[in-house]
Amino acid sequence: MPKGLYPRSLIIIIAPMVLLQCVVTVVFMERHWALVTERLSQGVVQDIAAVVDLIELDRSAGDLDAILDIAQRRLDLNIALLPAGELPPPAPKPFFNILDGILSEELTRQIGRPFWIDTVGNSKIVEIRIRLDEGILRVFAPRNSAYASNTHIFLIWMVGTSLVLLIIAVLFLRNQIRPIQTLAAAAEDFGRGKPMPPEFRPRGASEVRQASVAFIQMRDRIERQIEQRTRMLNGVSHDLRTVLTRFRLQLALLGEGEDQDALNSDIDEMQRMLEGYLAFAKGEAGEDVAEIDLEPLMERYQAEAELKGRKLSFEITGDTRVTVRPDAFTRMISNLVANAIRHGTTVQMTLNHDFRWLSIAIEDDGPGIAAEQREAVFKPFVRLDPARNLDAGGTGLGLAIARDVARAHGGDILLSDSALGGLRALIRIPA
Ligand SMILES: Nc1ncnc2c1ncn2[C@@H]1O[C@H](COP(=O)(O)OP(=O)(O)OP(=O)(O)O)[C@@H](O)[C@H]1O
Ligand SMILES: [Mg+2]
Fold first, then answer.
1. Is 421 in the pocket of ligand 1 (CB under 6 A)?
2. Which residues touch 405 (CB under 8 Å, ≥6 apart)?
3. Residue among 383, 389, 390, 415 whose CB has most ligand 1 atoms within 8 A, to mutate
4. Does residue 368's CB lie within 6 angstroms of at least one atom of ligand 1?
5. 390 pLDDT band (50/70/90 cuts)?
6. Residues, Cβ < 5 Å to ion ligand 2
7. Span from the CA of 194 to the centroid of ligand 2 (angstroms)
8. Nearest ligand 1 atom, CA 378
9. Is any atom of ligand 1 closer than 6 Å to the C-beta of 383?
10. Which atom of ligand 1 is nearest to the CA of 393?
11. Is the pLDDT of residue 333 over 90?
């Protein structure tokens, strides 16, 4: 079965129509056509039989001409009595011709003499030869007096009208399906963070219209919610940062000392966390999509990794240019790369961009994440055993942000084991 709604509905319309026509055609051929031809052939053979009887009844030559003349005038049969001899060899049987069969049957039944027929040769006339004691009787009968010959007109009308109806159905159906397709495309675009085409508006059948209106309302609600969340988190982060800065100033005024150092590093950590919250809040804020090149981006990560004494290698197959929300997209990859660099010493990135998907695998040789924890680490503020991390930094938001971004692009992130021994994070985004 085809997947699309359009081909499916076409099948729903076409299949019964074709089936119905097949049944009608078969029944018609079987019953009506064959029956009418049988009756007609019967009549012709009856006429011939009558002529044969008359000829056998009276053998004088003068009456024979009179009989043949009557046959010509009244029965429309062109009959001649040829001298006795052999019948011609049987003519080749046509591939599909009920006339031949029915006529032969009737001749055997009603006259019961050796005969020869040719229903193919001359298309308007059927030739019949019958061997009598007197000689060979040659009959030319008009084909349409033995055969329901205009049957095909009925079939042509039937197929013709259904073709016309079908074309109308196809055109109307396309117009009915198009609004559903535009709605699906708009929903998909929204899922990937693309702006909705301005010409999108509810149209089509009332159910489709209803779905479109519901979709637009849902989209507005989601956008409102995102905006609200972003604004609130921005406000909180901003206020807290102000307080932190004041804190730091006051500490500086207190002078130097061991207590102050500890307090200072606490403030640093809080600052870092705040930056994380801010990034989280900005994650989905309506950034516009743009085209970026993956290669320079990867080279930047490579340089950063080298600065931290780690080895990062990458491999790109397919188009290096991708259309994404640039800031969110780089933040997502940065978070995953930062995790890999923090936990491992060797990082391997494999990027593949084909017509369907952009997939980016980030693998490291660190301790990895146990299978049962792979869902939990995506939750905001979830960090696995902090002692595992060498540097204290980290708010547990990295993976949550990354997944948010991937999903806003219509994709997702999957965690698995890497061949390098650590974690393998796979980003998949529809291209
Ligand atoms: N490559 C990895 N190898 C092993 N464990 C990892 C890896 N990446 C993440 N984790 C674990 O998953 C937890 C959550 O990661 P996440 O990136 O969300 O937070 P974080 O790195 O601790 O903090 P942040 O990224 O916000 O600075 C981490 O605390 C870490 O224990
Ligand atoms: Mg992280």
1. no
2. 283, 284, 325, 328, 329, 331, 332
3. 383
4. yes
5. very low
6. 339, 398
7. 27
8. 18
9. yes
10. 27
11. yes
Mutate to test the pocket of ligand 1, among 272, 335, 377, 414 (most ligand atoms within 8 A of CB): 377
Give the number of the atom of ligand 1 that is nearest the alpha carbon of residue 339: 8
What would the pLDDT profile of 1-45 be if each residue is shown by its tens digit?
888 888 898 888 889 988 998 998 888 877 888 888 889 899 999
Q: Kindly report whether the global pTM for this prediction surpasses the value 0.70.
A: no
